[in-house]
Every structure is written in structure tokens, then in C-alpha cells.
């Protein structure tokens, strides 16, 4: 199942010839600010979907490329692109997933180049969505067109594409979309191009993802605000118990202090304190937090972040005892941890640690299951060999500290499918952050690897 040198060279040559055009296509997609959040213009998301659909229509591989939405609770989801071509002569069927929506740009003053103007610099393309995940869309398209060019337009491999339009907004209608389009999406192998490589030179398959629990809550101490000079010292404002509760979530070393949460042990990879500092921009005088190896802490142990607090800003502050304060917590959970159980453990910790008899009210919560891949199937071996042939370096299996909750839906709807989590990002891609970018040589190698995988799959019999 190892691609021979002749085929690898042929694929490389084909990708090289068209690569400048592929980069131009990526640039056109980056210029469309398709954001699936309600505060942004929905017309841009529609333009993004249409642009992606037109690319797959122009490939000539599919008889029909549709833009579809699912409706949940009476509200339509974002536009997704769907196409399917059935397998022939006993060949396997592969589903290729990516998403065309992007994160909001954030603070424009922090970007070194315009967020939605693709800019080439130092071997990278900068722009919102350049890595996450429009590069994944272009990689899928390139792999399909390379398969078509080398194997001929009558190839036997079955292919479906699903380019989602609301991944960055929580994939609200993802499960409904799977259920409604199950026949066209059913596959032996699902390639999720929404992760990263170990580096631009060293390829990786993501075999584990932490799950996610988020919880909003409010603390109340008074019916209304009062003058801090008149009542301070006797009456607790809401910020006092809030600060105490938030401080209780970690121990003195920075480990999550919620009792009962699970951990998962990972083998160490060559990743040093210097690597972590460079990749995360950790300031020289600031120490790491937590116990154990770096891989364990960022992949296999729970992590809790206070991602929002609703209180007056410094600019709007006054000498007032606040009656209420609200916060939102994001808890990443280890592979093997049930998110519902983790949520109850989090809520129990908050209840236990609220001082002064302050009133605690829970708001909305979100749950996302962790993922641990089955690495025993033929697709894993073929992906490994294809990546190594394309990158020229041994592949590594990695975990990701973040979450892709919809993968749990894929495993439930398609329990027999082998799931490969790939990607084009690297540690310096800064997905979701200002100055997002994709490494061009890494992108090219990812295209070659996926094309090799599809060509090899075209010669296999489905199991």
C-alpha cells in the first residue's frame, strides 16, 4: 500500500504545474468574508458557498453539485456544498470534508496585512481562512482533479464532498445535514481536512481530540447596585464571590482543580519548552502551568479557560457595588471523558466554591465529545504511506488540544467508516488569531498526499 516512486513523481509534477493557479484560487476564496455568525452579512456566506460550489462544478467530476441547508428548530442553517459520485467495480467510497466559513477577523490593528486580502510573505499566504479551512477546500479540489487527470474521468473510486458553512459557529445543523443526506455521504473512509501537521516539513495524522464543555453562569448578591463608599466593607458585591470562584478552578501550579475529571497519557514527542514558548508567544518571564509532560498537558489533561466575563469595562467603571456578574467557562476534556459527566463535575465545583451565600444561576451550556481514532484500518496505513511519500519525512500521530465536536456525529451516523483527521495547518498558522497563514510548501505536499491516497484507493477493493 506504499505509492511507488513513479506515481509519486507523476502526481508531484501535476500538482507543481498547477500550483500557482491553486494558490490564486485560495486567494479568491480568502477575499470572501464568509462568517456564519449572526452579526455578519449573510450575503458574504452565500457568495462563499457559491464560489466553492462553482469550483467543484468546474472540475467535471460530479454530475451535480448542490448548495443545501438543513433546518433545526425552524431556523435554516448556513449553506453547505454537497456532491457525490458513486463507486464502481467494488472500489471504496471516500467522503472529503472541509468548511468554507471563517472566524471573524478580530482587531484589524493587530493584523500585519489586511485580513481578507491574501498576501504572500516568506513562503506563506496570510489572510483569514487561508489555513482554516479554505486551504482544506482547495486541497480536496486539487486531489480530486489530480485523480481525474491521472486515472481518467471514468475512475472507479466513489467520492462525496461535504463543505460545511457553519463550523466556526458551532455546526448547529451538522447532525441534521448528515441525517438528511446520509445516502450521498455514506463512505468507507472520511477525510476531515481541518487539523494540522507536526510542522510544514513533517506530516501528521490527528488521532485524538479533546472534548469540550462550556458553561455560562451568573452570581448575584444584591437586588440592585449601591454606592461602594456607603456599603463597602459590609456588603459583598458580585465580583468578590466571582473572583473567588474563578480562582478555585485551578490549583497553585495551574492544574485544573475540578475533582473527578479524567486524564489520558500520551507518549512524548520532541517538543521542548522553547518550542512551546515560540509557538504560543509565551513571554520569557512567564512560567508554564500544570504537571506532567507537554503533550499530556495540551492533549490528554483537562484545561479550563475563562473566556468571558460580563462586568463594566474600566472605561465605564464607577464607585458601585455590582449586584451581578456573569462569566463563561470553556473546559477541554480528555479522550475517554463523557462530556455530560464533566459538565456535572464542573457545576458541582462551582456550587461548592461560591462564598458568602451568593446566589448562583446557571445559563446555557455546550457539550462536545472527545475523539480517539481507531488506527488499525487500511485507510490509516495508506494515509501514512501517502503522507510520507509526499513530505519525504516520517509521519507522526498527534493529538490536538482543541475540539472538533462534529466528529462524534460522524462516528455515530457512519459507525463503520474509517475517519482520518488531516490538515494543512502548522504551529505558526495562527488559526482563529490575527495574521492567520498557511505554509505554501506544506499545502502543496498535503495536496500530493491526498491525491496519492485517492489514486491508491482507486485500485483497492472495498472491504
Map the helices and strands.
Layout lengths: L4 H26 L11 H17 L6 E4 L2 E2 L2 E2 L3 E6 L7 E7 L19 E3 L2 E3 L7 H18 L6 E7 L9 H7 L1 H4 L3 E8 L7 E6 L1 E10 L5 E2 H4 L7 H9 L25 H8 L13 H7 L2 E8 L9 E2 L2 E10 L5 H15 L5 E10 L2 E2 L5 H14 L4 E5 L5 H8 L4 E8 L11 E3 H18 L6
Parallel strand pairs: 5-8, 5-9, 9-19, 10-18
Antiparallel strand pairs: 1-4, 2-3, 4-8, 6-7, 7-20, 10-17, 11-15, 11-16, 12-14, 13-15
Helix pairs in contact: 1-3, 1-13, 3-13, 4-12, 11-13
Measured between the Cα atoms of the first and last residue, the distance is 15 Å
Work out the radius of gyration: 24 Å
Overall shape: it is elongated
* Individual helix count: 13
Structural class determined from secondary elements: alpha+beta
Percentage of residues in helical conformation: 25-40%
| Total domain count | 2
The CATH topology name of the largest domain reads: Aminopeptidase
Would you report the number of β strands? 20
How are the strands of the largest sheet arranged? 1-4-8-5-9-19
Low-pLDDT parts are none
CATH level-two architecture of the largest domain:
3-Layer(aba) Sandwich
Strand content: 15-25%
CATH class of the largest domain: Alpha Beta
The main sheet comes to:
6 strands, mixed
**Overall average residue pLDDT:** 95
CATH homologous superfamily grouping of the largest domain: Zn peptidases
Amino acid at each position: 500500500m506504499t505509492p511507488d516512486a513513479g506515481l509519486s513523481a507523476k502526481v508531484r509534477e501535476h500538482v507543481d504545474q498547477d500550483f500557482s493557479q491553486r494558490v490564486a484560487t485560495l486567494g479568491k476564496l480568502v477575499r470572501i468574508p464568509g462568517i456564519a455568525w449572526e452579526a455578519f452579512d449573510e450575503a458574504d456566506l452565500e457568495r462563499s458557498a457559491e464560489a466553492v460550489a462553482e469550483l467543484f462544478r468546474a472540475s467535471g467530476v460530479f454530475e451535480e453539485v448542490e448548495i443545501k441547508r438543513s433546518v433545526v428548530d425552524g431556523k435554516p442553517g448556513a449553506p453547505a456544498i454537497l456532491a457525490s459520485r458513486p463507486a464502481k467495480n467494488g472500489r471504496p467510497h471516500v467522503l472529503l470534508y472541509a468548511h468554507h466559513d471563517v472566524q471573524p477577523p478580530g482587531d484589524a490593528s493587530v493584523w500585519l496585512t489586511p485580513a481578507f486580502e491574501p498576501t504572500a510573505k516568506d513562503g506563506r499566504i496570510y489572510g483569514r481562512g487561508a489555513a482554516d479551512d479554505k486551504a482544506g477546500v482547495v486541497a480536496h479540489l486539487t486531489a480530486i482533479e489530480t485523480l481525474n487527470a491521472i486515472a481518467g474521468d471514468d475512475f472507479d473510486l466513489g467520492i462525496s464532498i461535504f463543505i460545511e458553512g457553519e463550523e466556526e459557529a458551532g455546526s448547529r445543523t451538522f447532525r441534521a445535514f448528515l441525517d438528511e443526506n446520509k445516502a450521498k455521504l455514506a463512505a468507507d473512509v472520511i477525510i476531515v481536512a481541518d487539523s494540522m501537521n507536526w510542522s510544514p516539513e513533517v506530516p501528521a495524522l490527528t488521532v485524538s481530540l479533546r472534548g469540550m464543555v462550556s458553561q455560562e453562569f451568573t452570581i448575584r448578591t444584591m437586588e440592585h447596585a449601591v454606592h461602594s463608599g456607603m456599603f463597602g466593607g459590609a456588603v459583598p458585591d458580585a465580583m468578590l464571590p466571582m473572583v473567588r470562584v474563578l480562582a478555585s478552578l485551578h490549583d497553585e501550579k495551574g492544574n485544573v482543580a475540578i475533582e473527578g475529571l479524567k486524564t489520558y497519557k500520551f507518549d512524548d514527542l520532541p517538543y521542548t519548552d522553547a518550542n512551546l514558548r515560540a509557538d504560543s508567544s509565551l513571554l520569557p518571564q512567564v512560567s508554564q502551568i500544570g504537571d506532567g509532560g507537554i503533550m499530556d498537558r495540551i492533549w490528554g489533561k483537562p484545561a479550563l479557560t475563562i473566556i468571558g466575563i460580563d462586568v463594566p469595562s474600566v472605561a465605564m467603571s464607577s464607585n458601585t457595588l455590582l449586584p451581578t456578574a456573569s462569566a463563561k467557562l470553556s473546559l477541554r476534556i480528555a479522550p475517554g471523558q463523557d462530556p455530560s459527566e464533566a459538565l456535572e463535575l464542573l457545576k458541582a465545583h462551582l456550587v461548592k466554591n461560591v462564598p458568602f451565600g451568593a446566589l448562583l444561576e446557571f445559563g446555557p451550556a455546550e457539550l462536545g465529545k472527545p475523539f480517539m481514532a481507531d488506527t488499525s484500518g487500511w485507510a490509516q496505513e495508506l494515509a501514512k504511506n501517502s503522507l510520507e511519500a509526499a513530505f519525504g519525512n516520517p509521519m507522526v500521530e498527534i493529538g490536538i488540544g482543541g475540539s472538533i465536536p462534529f466528529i462524534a456525529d460522524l462516528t455515530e451516523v457512519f459507525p463503520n467508516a474509517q475517519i482520518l483527521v488531516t490538515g494543512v495547518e502548522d504551529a505558526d498558522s495562527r488559526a482563529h488569531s490575527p495574521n492567520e497563514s498557511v505554509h505554501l510548501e506544506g499545502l502543496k505536499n498535503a495536496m500530493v498526499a491526498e491525491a496519492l491516497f485517492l489514486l491508491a484507493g482507486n485500485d483497492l477493493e472495498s472491504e
